[in-house]
């Protein structure tokens, strides 16, 4: 194996060679990562999240788990890379510490230098969402609404201009048979804890998801097989529709689209709440369900994070268009393996890639 350093986009910054033509070697250039026969453009990697951890002396892994750089050996080992979707992909390299150093420095340069990375980290702290979690954006009546979700950790964050942030957590884990109407989910609007009720009935028209605040009430009710109305105090504020199973996307698009939201209200909080409902709960025939993987976990009152054991394992976000981001049946919570919001078709927020 030989290592090469250079600054040209096409020149190898890290390169492995083998006399065995079947060996899986790794090469990193200024614009792509080559793993055996698979090529990943750097535009598909979350360079900001990896750069931020690297500057703190850590390496980012699955689900936000981190390990100190000094724990990476000089020899062969797995070094995870984080995609813009929030997926972490384990990459076995022959010189782990060197690969991490080269990729870390490359990530910092691509972000515009250490000061820009620090600014990214500060913005993420202000948002209350780790950099590694993907942000998707949708137009709203008061400006863009940001949606961040990781279904394995059971966390949703939705925010937009002139509205309090809506967050969903599961402090003790989520389970569809958990006691209580919220099934273990905890929803807050700004600093206020809301009352959440999920109801699934044999008659689908009677199923609902409801959020109550003092003096306010939002209810999600089925409209047809793929759509549901969100009502605030019995007035329609948004129509939420699942994306098609195979959405039409622009070439080069990595992230799956969000559910379609047709706003009937100009209130910024209605817009944020609509996207929170759309990303967290089932729509249409699955109204009243939650799109999270059933899982129980101990709670210490802190934000949900992955265990250290997940650091070097595949962490699928199921938010991407291709197989790099999706485990079988994952599909961003619509499918039967990664949430109870699915209708058995295993489609994602647009479905692809399974």
Structure, described:
The protein is an alpha+beta fold and 354 residues long. It has 4 helices and 22 strands. It has helices spanning 47-55, 96-110, 114-127, 268-280, and strands at residues 14-15, 26-28, 32-35, 38-41, 58-60, 66-68, 77-82, 88-93, 135-138, 145-150, 155-159, 166-169, 173-174, 186-189, 192-193, 195-199, 208-213, 216-222, 227-232, 235-241, 260-263, 295-296. The strands form 6 sheets. It has a 6-stranded antiparallel beta sheet with strand order 9-10-11-12-14-15, covered by helices on one side. Strands 16-17-18-19-20-21 form a 6-stranded antiparallel beta sheet, with helices on one face. α1 packs across α2 (96-110) and α1 (47-55) packs across α3 (114-127). The protein is elongated and about 70 Å long. The model is unreliable at 1-6 and 343-354 (pLDDT under 50). Residues 328-354 have a biased composition (Gly residues). Residues 288-354 are annotated as: Disordered.
């Amino acid at each position: 194996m030989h290592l090469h350093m250079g600054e040209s986009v096409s020149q190898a910054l890290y390169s492995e060679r083998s006399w065995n033509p079947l060996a899986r070697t790794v090469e990193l250039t200024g614009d792509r990562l080559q793993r055996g026969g698979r090529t990943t453009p750097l535009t598909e990697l979350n360079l900001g999240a990896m750069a931020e951890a690297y500057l703190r002396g850590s390496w980012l892994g699955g689900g936000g788990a981190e390990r100190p750089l000094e724990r990476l050996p000089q020899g062969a080992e797995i070094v995870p890379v984080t995609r813009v979707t929030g997926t972490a992909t384990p990459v076995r390299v022959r010189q782990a510490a060197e690969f991490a150093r080269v990729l870390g420095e490359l990530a910092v340069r691509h972000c515009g230098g250490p000061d820009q990375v620090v600014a990214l980290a500060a913005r993420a702290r202000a948002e209350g969402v780790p950099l590694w979690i993907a942000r998707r954006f949708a137009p709203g009546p008061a400006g863009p609404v940001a949606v961040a979700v990781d279904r394995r950790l059971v966390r949703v964050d939705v925010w937009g201009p002139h509205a309090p942030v809506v967050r969903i957590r599961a402090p003790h884990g989520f389970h569809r048979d958990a006691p209580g109407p919220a099934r273990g989910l905890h929803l807050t609007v700004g600093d206020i804890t809301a009352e959440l009720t999920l109801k699934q009935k044999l008659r689908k028209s009677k199923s609902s998801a409801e959020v109550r605040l003092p003096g306010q009430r939002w209810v999600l009710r089925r409209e047809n097989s793929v759509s549901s109305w969100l009502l605030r105090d019995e007035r329609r504020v948004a129509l939420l529709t699942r994306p098609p199973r195979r959405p039409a996307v622009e070439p080069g698009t990595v992230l799956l689209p969000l559910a379609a939201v047709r706003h009937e209200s100009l209130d910024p909080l209605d817009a944020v709440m609509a996207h929170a409902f759309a990303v967290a709960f089932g729509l249409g025939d699955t109204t009243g369900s939650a799109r999270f993987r059933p899982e129980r976990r101990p709670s210490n009152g802190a934000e949900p994070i992955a265990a250290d054991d997940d650091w070097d394992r595949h962490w699928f976000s199921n938010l991407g268009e291709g197989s790099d981001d999706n485990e079988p049946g994952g599909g961003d919570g619509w499918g039967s393996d990664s949430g109870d919001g699915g209708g058995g078709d295993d489609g994602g927020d647009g479905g692809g890639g399974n």
